[in-house]
Structure formats: structure tokens, C-alpha cells
Design goal:
Blueprint lengths: L4 E2 L1 E4 L3 H13 L5 E5 L39 H23 L9 E3 L2 E6 L1 H14 L9 E3 L2 H7 L1 H4 L8 E6 L3 E3 L1 H12 L5 E5 L1 E10 L2 E8 L5 E6 L2 E3 L5 H8 L8 E12 L2 H5 L4 E3 L13 E7 L2 E12 L11 H4 L6 H10 L1 H11 L3 H8 L11 E5 L3 E7 L5 E4 L2 E5 L5 E6 L7 H12 L1 H15 L11 H14 L3 H24 L1
Parallel strand pairs: 1-12, 2-3, 2-13, 3-9, 5-15, 13-22
Antiparallel strand pairs: 4-8, 5-7, 6-7, 10-11, 11-12, 14-17, 14-18, 14-19, 15-16, 16-17, 19-20, 21-22
Helix pairs in contact: 1-6, 1-13, 2-15
Family: Belongs to the MQO family.
Cofactor: FAD
Protein name: Probable malate:quinone oxidoreductase
Amino acid sequence: MATNKVDALLVGSGVMSTTLATLLKKLDSSLNVLMVERLDQIAAESTDGWNNAGTGHAGYCELNYTPQGADGDVAIERALTINANYEISQQLWSSLVDSGDLPSPDQFINSTPHISFVWGQDNVEFLRKRYEKLKDHHLFADIEYSEDADTLTEWMPLVMNNRTGDEPVAATRVAYGADVDFGSLTRNLVASLEKQSGFELRLGHEVSALKKVDAGQWQVTVKNLSTGKKETLNSDFVFLGAGGGALPLLQKSDIPESKGYGGFPVSGQWLVCQNEDVIKQHHAKVYGKAAIGAPPMSVPHLDTRIINGKPALLFGPYAGFTTQFLKAGSRLDLLKSVRSNNLKPMIDVGLNNMDLTRYLISEVMQSHKDRVATLKQYLPSAKAEDWTLAHAGQRVQIIKKDENGRGKLEFGTELVAAEDGSLAALLGASPGASVAAKAMIEVLERCFRMRMDGDWKAKLKTLVPSYGESLVEDATLLQTIRHRTLDTLGLQASSAKQTTGNTDHQEREELRRSAG
């Protein structure tokens, strides 16, 4: 495809842009789609396996999705929403596996139980309340709970090894949780797209300017970073899916909807295990509670990972303070993002989140000994020499005005779209890649309204069978959908194992409680 006019220009080659490109070409194969990536590799920023948690975020183990109020009640609404949204991603991936657009599922997704683990009486009581509320909803009907040391040792032997029996502990588990290599997923999707006419990928290119020149059309300047040559393109639709780079581009667009948005960058680091014997002994994602003042992306977890086909064991992430919006960005990114329309919200957030800033700086100042000490809360037998530090990706949390015009810091994701649907940008971080399908379907609904009112809805329902219906409300639909996706994606075996063993665990727990 060699043209200066395209139907859709997608900025960034991560999971968001690639998911959108896949949907567009599935819904209308005649569309001319151009993807522009500033790096020389696909999915090398936030989507890369080493730059994100690789967790299929379904709310099974992430305790920050179920906050406890001052009255002690545990709110589960966000967990329900995230779980249902993640099911949408798994439906799309299943359809793409069936159509041959994705390879064997084990090349990008692997069964990895999702476990929440806590210690201390107050935390145990919180986890028990969380479990009691979640288990009564069909989305979480398979969740298990235990305070029994033998059961917990079965679930996570390394975590329980060398742990004293004095302090109460508890855990929940969903056996068919998943580890997702979003980098591999994205590269396979791009490989499929490149086989199709009407799709082009340009690596080593960045968008240096964009402006609206006509009703519903954008003029975009794209620069070749190796030659310095610039080219002007016209596009009916522009999507800014460039991770931390989306905010500066959104500001350049100057659409009214962009006013008032700012960004709060946060960096991350992992401890990576180098001992193959240790790696082989752990098979789960074990999430705990975040430290007071920590951002949600810093919830500690000990993770089995499969990255580029190789098993790994990571602990973290350790957050840090940064002024860069991208891992390969500039230290001036934060300063350059300041505008007259977002200055007040950014100042408000800065003044009202000093504890968070101090926490992030303290994380940066930690020694290896300090980081290993935190690791030992989850892995008592950890040896410092088995672990090395690796840098994870950058995240830019959303700063926006609240209902009173003051600034507030948000830790979710948000779609910002022009009123006429000609441009959209995705801002924020968690739960990010896991809900890419839901986020990009929202782009279609807001930016391609006429096509969605036409034949696209029916086509979309073949890719995502639950489209237009609620998995939160419809238990029968959820059962049908989940059975198909777990089977297609190779996660069904874990589900069967869990169903078989669940009764024994529940009976043991009931006996323990009655005895106690």
C-alpha cells in the first residue's frame, strides 16, 4: 500500500492499536489501514512481555479491584466489570485462533492459577469477606478460599516453605487464571495483518504533527527517524494508541475534548529469578496487598511468566518516580505536557499526592537488600544472589478535572474521542492490555457509529459472541462463553482440575472452622 490517503492511521504498534487494526480489517477488509511505530520493533514499549505484568486481569487475584470501605464492606463492582471485560478479550482471541489469525494459544497464553495471598488477622478477615461476596456471583463461582496450611502449600509451595505457623494466613485461588505474553500476542496479530492487502506497518516513524483540515479528516506529518524525511498523509480517522506517548499527541490534535488532561508518569522495576530450580517450583500468580500510599500498578506479586516461550519468575513491580512518558522517552516529557488548560489540575494533584510522590522516591532509593526483604514476605527462602533487577515499562496515570474543576489522579484507562469520531486516544494504564478488546470495541462504537448501525454489529458478534449482552447479568451466557474460551485457549484442563478438587478443599475448610 503506497498512498498519502488512508482510511485509518493508528499510532503505536502495541496491543491496543493492533487489536483495533484487527477488528477494522475483520469488519471491512477493503479499509486501508496504516500503523506507525517510532521504535524499530513491534510492541516494544508497554506491551512487551518484560514491561507489563502479563496477567490476564480478571479480578481474580488483584485486591485493589475490591476495596474495603470504612464500614468494613468490600466493594466488588469493579472486579465484576473487569472480569466481564477480560472475557471479551478471550472471546476475540478464541475467534482469531479458530480463524488462523493467531497461532496455537500456548504461543501467547498459558494456564497460570491466580492467587490472592495475605497474612495477619485483619487481612485474613478482609480476604474472607471478599471471597464470600465474590463466590456468590456467577463470574467468580469457581473461586476457592483456604486458611489451611496444607492446602496453601499445595497451591504455592515456595510461598509456604519456611513460613512460621504463628501468623494467620489465607489465600483464594482461581485455577484457570492465565499468563498472557502480550508482546507475542501482538506480534502474531501484526504478522497476520501484514499478509492482508490494505495494511501497512512503518517502523522507525513518528507522528510529528497533526491537524484537522476538513470535516472528519486529518492531515498528519510522519517523520522517518532514520532518514529525517517527512511525509504528509491524510486520514479519515486517527487512533492514538501510543501508551505514554498518547497524551502529547492528543494535545497536538487540539480537539476540545483534550483540554484539561495531564499525566502522572510512574516507572517500574522487577526482581527476576536467575535460579532455574526455583523457577520450576512455582506455578502461579500470587498477588498481595499494596503498601499504604502505593499506586495500584505497584501491587506486589510473585509471578510465573512465559515470555517469548521461556519460563520466568518475577517479583514486583517496584514503583519509581520518573518524568519520562515512555521507557525510551525524554526526561522533559512531563514538563512539555504542561498546558494552561491542565496546569491547575496538575498542581492540585501534585499538592494532594505528596505521600505518593514520597513513596515513589523511596522506592527508587531502595537497595537490593531492601527489595529482597520485601520479596521474602512472599518467598521466605529467597536468596539475594538468585535475583537481579530489571526495568519494567513506564505508565502514565491520568490527571483530569473532577466535577468541581479541581485536579484528580485516576489509575484506570480512559478513551478520549473527538465529537465527530474522527480521532480517539486511549490514556491511562490498569487494567490495560487485558481489556484491549473491550476498549477497542468502544472506539468502534464512538468513532464508527454509522458502520456500527449498519452491518458491523452482526459481524462483531461473530468475533465476540457476547457482544451487546451482559456477562455480569446473564449467568447462562457466561457459562457457555467461558466453556468455549477456556477450551479453545487451552485453559480448560485447569478448570477441570479445580472442579475436581474443590469439594475436598471446601469440606476441609468447613471441618476446620467447625472445630475452631
